[in-house]
Amino acid sequence: MELWYSENHSRDVQFSIRVEKQLYTAQTEFQRIDVMTSNEFGTFLTLDGLMMVAEKDEFIYHEMITHVPMSVNPGIENVLVIGGGDGGTVNQLVRYGGIKHIDLVEIDREVIEVSKRFFPELSAGMSDKRVSIYYEDGLRFIRSRHGEYDLIIVDSTDPFGPGEGLFTREFYGSCSKALTENGILVNQHESPYYEDYANSLARTHARIKGVFPIHRLYQAHIPTYPSGHWLFGFASNKFDPVLDIKAEEWNRLNIKTRYYNTELHKGSFALPNYVKELLENV
């Protein structure tokens, strides 16, 4: 009998992967965790039945959420990652020698333990001496931080369950206070294609836009995420992500990437008309 992992992307659309083997399953205080392996996408992790990370395409998500802000300000030294328990975002950040400290805040300890066990290469950066891990709620953590971080990356789940508080205006206001004068906020922004995801994207855009004077969305193609068309948000009080990119400076770092480059960086902010219209109607 064949085993399939299936995720509903809308009421009428289902995405399925044939599973070779179920490697792990557990119900924690916060969510259900499953790890499976497949021929097409390798080992993948789901939370409450939703795809979080897959070996084959994780590099797209983690490169785009990390290198876009780092190329706008290569001088970033102190970073906060909220969520990101799989370690992929931290794994990209520790490649920058100029970064002095990274705080990783993950509400569910088991996510990190599972990632270390089943995704050792992806999670390797969490053992870097510059990384401090806090097992607590991101919204509660950031309330007490003021002017500490040059970059905050919100690598969260979708806006319900454990990640719900990370999509509120209160949270984005706390992020603004926690950033330095030159600080940047980047967050995963959902898909603009299916109605429920698009509505969530529009709400998030409106809330961040009400806090930061500069807020622009950019896109990437991630096959295992709903519709494959995924957006990120870039917010700052100072930097425009297209006008202020330090392309030559970033390229001199010689960081090897599989998806991101500085030409793609500029193009990723050129959004399709249907997405522009969605944002204009917020």
From TrEMBL:
Listed transmembrane segments: none
Pfam families in UniProt: Spermine_synt_N, Spermine_synth
Residues holding S-methyl-5'-thioadenosine: Q31, E106, D137, G138, P162
Database matches in Gene3D superfamilies: Spermidine synthase, tetramerisation domain, Vaccinia Virus protein VP39
BP GO annotations: spermidine biosynthetic process
Source organism superkingdom: Bacteria
Pathway(s) this gene product operates in, as recorded in its UniProt entry: Amine and polyamine biosynthesis; spermidine biosynthesis; spermidine from putrescine: step 1/1
Keyword Transferase: yes
Domain PABS, chain residue ranges per copy: 2-237
Record's catalysed reaction(s): S-adenosyl 3-(methylsulfanyl)propylamine + putrescine = S-methyl-5'-thioadenosine + spermidine + H(+)
Cited InterPro entries: PABS (IPR030374), SAM-dependent_MTases_sf (IPR029063), Spermi_synthase (IPR001045), Spermidine_synt_N (IPR035246), Spermidine_synt_N_sf (IPR037163)
Molecular functions per Gene Ontology: spermidine synthase activity
Enzyme Commission number(s) from the entry: 2.5.1.16
Entry GO terms, CC: cytosol
Top EC class, one word: transferase
Description of how the protein assembles with itself and partners: Homodimer or homotetramer.
NCBIfam families xrefs: PRK00811.1, speE
Family label: Belongs to the spermidine/spermine synthase family.
Name this polypeptide is given: Polyamine aminopropyltransferase
Provenance organism: Candidatus Monoglobus merdigallinarum
Recorded name of the encoding gene: speE
